[in-house]
Every structure is written in structure tokens, then in C-alpha cells.
Design a protein that fits this description.
The protein is α+β, with helices and mostly antiparallel strands and 171 residues long. The chain has helices at residues 2-25, 42-45, 124-132, 150-154, 164-170, and strands at residues 37-41, 47-49, 64-68, 71-76, 86-89, 97-99, 105-106, 110-114, 140-141, 147-148, 157-161. Strands 2-8-5-6 form a four-stranded antiparallel β-sheet.
Length: 171
Amino acid sequence: LISSLKRLIAKKCDLRQGVLRRLLTGQTRLPGFSAPWRVKRLGELAHLYQPETIAQSAFTSTGYPVYGANGVIGYFSRFNHAEPQIMISCRGNCGSVNKTSGPAWINGNAMVVNIERNKHFVDFDFLYYLLSVTDFSPVVTGTGQPQIVRGPLAELPLSIPEQKEEQTENT
């Protein structure tokens, strides 16, 4: 019974991922939207940068969460980002997409995807989900220690709805 339920859950997760991918790539459109999608480079949609890394020895037992390449790695007494941010791991396990939930310290092993200057035409949640289903292999460099650097990542083409309302509806 447990094995059967695990297979069913896996199947449902695959179906959900497929629907999500079709919605986020424009293959399936929501009713009421017909405006064309446009291809934009990630660097046009967001400011990309790697923040300062703090040493693990500086971590505290409480405070603001510290995000590394793949999620929360500790806590610190200060934050370097007051607003939620999207992050892409850029060292080792490249291309993992995460987001913060509020004030946090983001370390330099993650590339911050900050849409503050483009909030009028890019929805935060839409971009987060779109990046979550994006293949980053074309922008990964290096063999011994794979990494993603800002230049090629900024050139990554993404197709997005022209209307922000459609982006919001898709999330």
C-alpha cells in the first residue's frame, strides 16, 4: 500500500510539473489571455549579483536566516536583503532555484535575481516558478568545479507574457 501511494504521489508530482512547465512556457494559455509572449534576457528582467559571503564562524544561534547556494545554512545578527529575493545556486550544484521569505543574509554562493527595478512588468512569483523549471546547463561553466557566472546568466533567454496580469494568474 505504501509503495502504491508513493508511486501515485510521484505520478501526481510529475503531472503537476508538466502542467506548470506548459503554463510557464506559454504552451498552454489561460482563458482570457491572447497577447503575445516576448523573449527577454534574464539580465533585462532582473539585476543579477553575488553578495558578500560571511564566514560560518560568524553565524549566530538566532537572528536572520543565512542563505547559501541551496537554502538556509545558518543565522546571522544582520541582513543584507530586506525584501524577499530569488536566488540561483552558482557553485557546485548549479541551477538550484530558491527564494527568501523576508529579511535575510544571502551569501555569495548564490546569484541574486533582484527584480526591484522591474516590478511594473515582472511578477516575482512568476519569475521564481519560471526559473524553477529552467534548464541552466547552457550557462554552467567549468568541469572540476561547475559554476554559473553573471555574464552568461544575464544572456539567458526567457519567454514571458507581455501582460503582467497573465504572469500573476499563472502563479
